[in-house]
Structures are given as structure tokens and as C-alpha cells.
Amino acid sequence: MGAAGGVTVRAPAKINLELRVGPLRPDGYHELATVFHAVAVFDDLTALPAEPGEGISIVIHGPQAAAVPVDASNLAVRAARLLAERVGIEADVRMQLHKQIPVAGGMAGGSADAAAALVACDALWHTGLDRDQLHELAAELGSDVPFSLLGGTAIGSGRGERLTPALARGEYHWVVALADHGLSTPAVYAEIDRLRATGQAPQPLEEPEIGDRLMQALRAGDAEALGACLVNDLQPAACSLDPSLERALDVGRKVGALGGMVSGSGPTTVFLARDSSHALDLAVALTASGAAVDVRRSFGPVAGARLVEAIRS
Ligand code: C5P
């Protein structure tokens, strides 16, 4: 991979197998206890060298490309800029992003792009930063970005940026049901605060915790037990803002999903299947019900943001 070449990085979507949301902190974030799980829905980002002084540009392809900004607010652009600033070099790069992860879907699509840009520009610019330094930059860019770098299955605390890899066995089959619109993450967090303040959702633990049963299920590689433990404290908030999500959750229950829930802040819903043929049944039922605009089969865990291709010029 010479300086004149480009690099392609693939970054995964995530779901939260358990998402426990504590009270609002003075800094505007919520204390979390969560189990992140990277699934095989990917964004691919290619970083190509640019002329000195050209700056950062990004071109986006994929079904929802039009919904993603290409200006300085784009998370991949912000990641490239932050990395260049931190190592003291000119930020010149042409990025091409192929987006498959739903936009504003609660699957950390923006975070995946930021992680992909960090890894790609790090390789392109030969910054010499180590994994810990990239992790620090990732945490500055967003709460979920460090996990997009790490991948696999991991316990998250703090605002989600403090990670410990989880002991997990087995491969899990997921069905991902997409909505035709997004939900704003801050709006969903604000809604859970409102529901709690008005007694419409249970009060949070001061220090949220992950349940033992879920960790046991992961250690045993027991999909059935895992399905019974899936839980998301943000689900009532996402469903309150978008009551149509209940329909997809109902279909999942009726077709015997081992578990189903809203992913992160939604509106994507995810369902755990027994195996790949059960996943196909679930996907067919969800598609036929009209409760989702698009349904995808996936599996996890998968690796975090990784270099997949080096292009020599
Ligand atoms: O860190 P990130 O930029 O992804 O967070 C987006 C928004 O989600 C925050 O501004 C905040 O409103 C909300 N959030 C939160 N608590 C967290 C993570 C995110 O309240 N732990």
C-alpha cells in the first residue's frame, strides 16, 4: 500500500443486545450499561489520495445516499479532519462511501462511517497512531464510534465509549426490519426522560447494569436464552414517537422470533432467529406484513472497522 494508493475499509452496523439507560448526566448524556453486537450489514469507505491543498471530499452511493450530508457535518469528514488535526498534517483526501447501513436507523451507521474514515485515513496518511489513540479520537466523534472500531460483542459503559470485549460464543442469525424514515437519537433520549418524568416509564437505576442471564446466554452460545433477555430501555421512547413500530414487533412475536426489539434509538427493529431458515421465514413474514419497507437477513458477531483492500495506483 504505497502513498500513492488508496485504501478501502469495511465497518459494521451494531445492535444493542441489552441497552440500559441511566439518568440524564449534567453533560447532556445518559449513563449507559449496554452490550454491543456487530452485525453483518456494512458501510464500505475508500480513501484516495488528493492533491495538496485539495481538502476533504466525500461522494456517497447506496439506496439512502441522498439522506446523508456531504458537507463538514458528515461524520466521516469530521473523523478525517480530527485525525489530520491531531497528527498535524494537511487534511487532503477523497472519500467514497458505499452505504448499506440504514441512515438514522439506530444501528450506528454514522458511527461506522466515522470509524471507517479513521482507519482508512490512518492507513492512507501513515499516521503511526496506535489502536488506543484511534479509540480516543473515536470517542470524541461519538459515543458509538469506539465500538464501530472494535466490533464483535462488547460491554459498553459510560456514554457507551468505554468498552470491554464480552465472552461470547456462537453465531446469531438476525432479521433487520427497516422503517421508511429515521428517528433522531437526541429526540429519543429526550422522550425517555419525558416518559420517566411523567411516570409513563420506570425510573432508571442510578448506575445501570447488564443482567447476568444475558451474559450467561452469550457465554453458552444459547440463542434461545439470549432471545429471552433482549431488552432496550429506549424502546418505549422510540415506540412513543413512532407507534407503527409495534406492528413489526407484533409480527416478529407471531412468527416465533426468539426475541425482538427496537435497535438502539430506532426505528429499525431486529429479531433473533433460531437458524438461517427460520430467519428466512421471519423475513418473509415481515415483508408480507408491510410493517417494514425493507427487511434484511444478517448475522453476528463480525469484526469492527477493517481494511479490506489496498488499491495501488
Ligand atoms: O455521542 P453521540 O453524538 O452519538 O450522541 C448523540 C446524542 O444522543 C447526544 O447528543 C445525546 O442527546 C444522546 N445520547 C445520550 N446518552 C448517551 C449517548 C447519546 O443522551 N449515552
Task: Give a written overview of the molecule.
By secondary structure, the chain is an alpha+beta fold. It has 2 domains: 6-166, Ribosomal Protein S5, domain 2, CATH 3.30.230.10; 172-300, 2-Layer Sandwich (Alpha-Beta Plaits), CATH 3.30.70.890. It has 10 helices and 12 strands. Helix 1 packs parallel to helix 2 (109-125), helix 1 packs across helix 3 (131-141) and helix 5 (185-197) crosses helix 8. The relative contact order is 0.21. The mean pLDDT is 95. The structure holds cytidine-5'-monophosphate. Cytidine-5'-monophosphate (C5P) is lined by residues 28-30, 32, 142-144, 159-160, 185-186, 189.
Oligomeric composition of the shown chains: single chain
Task: Identify the CATH class of the largest domain.
Answer: Alpha Beta
Number of helices, counting only DSSP H or I runs of 4 residues or more: 10
Percentage beta strand: 25-35%
What's the CATH architecture name of the largest domain? 2-Layer Sandwich
Q: What is the count of distinct domains?
A: 2
Q: Say what the CATH topology of the largest domain is.
A: Ribosomal Protein S5, domain 2
